[in-house]
Amino acid sequence: MKHLLNRLIFAAAAFIAVAPAMAASDKGSAEEATALVKKVIAYYKANGKEKTFAAINAQNPDFKFKDLYVFGSTAKEGMPLSAHGANPKMVGKDMGMLKDAEGFPFAKRIIEIATSKEGKGWVDYKWPNPVTKAIEAKSTYVERVDDVYFACGIYK
């Protein structure tokens, strides 16, 4: 009985020690977010805008990885969000005036990057993490193709 108790205590201690690492591995990386956007762009090039937005809105598992999801819209200020891979309530809303927890107009910055000459880049802002419910630093990769953009963000 004493050996069983020691084993249980050891197992519990081991789990507590590795739990943070396990949680971290569930978070997507910058490279994974960029790769997910590139995957959606390849799908877009093969299937067109409407099918791509529909697939994202249907939460196609091909466009989700770990805690990552894709969103996108027409790359023009004032256009409503066309697709959101995690929250369908966001679709159809004008995101242009949306600000982060510190008042930074990150959605406007996403459009600025999407409509820039290069058409791609990262935006840093503070946003509620749906898992932890805390305001956390977030970076979103955005890339334009034709007249649309696709984006995917990571919590740091």
TrEMBL record:
Residues 21-146 form the Single Cache domain. Residues 1-23 form the signal peptide. Its main location: membrane. It holds the Pfam family sCache_2. InterPro entries: sCache_2 (IPR033480). It is a multi-pass membrane protein. The keyword Transmembrane applies. Keywords: Cell membrane, Membrane, Signal, Transmembrane, Transmembrane helix. It is found in: Cell membrane. This is Single Cache domain-containing protein. Gene3D superfamilies: PAS domain (3.30.450.20). One of its GO terms (cellular component) is plasma membrane.
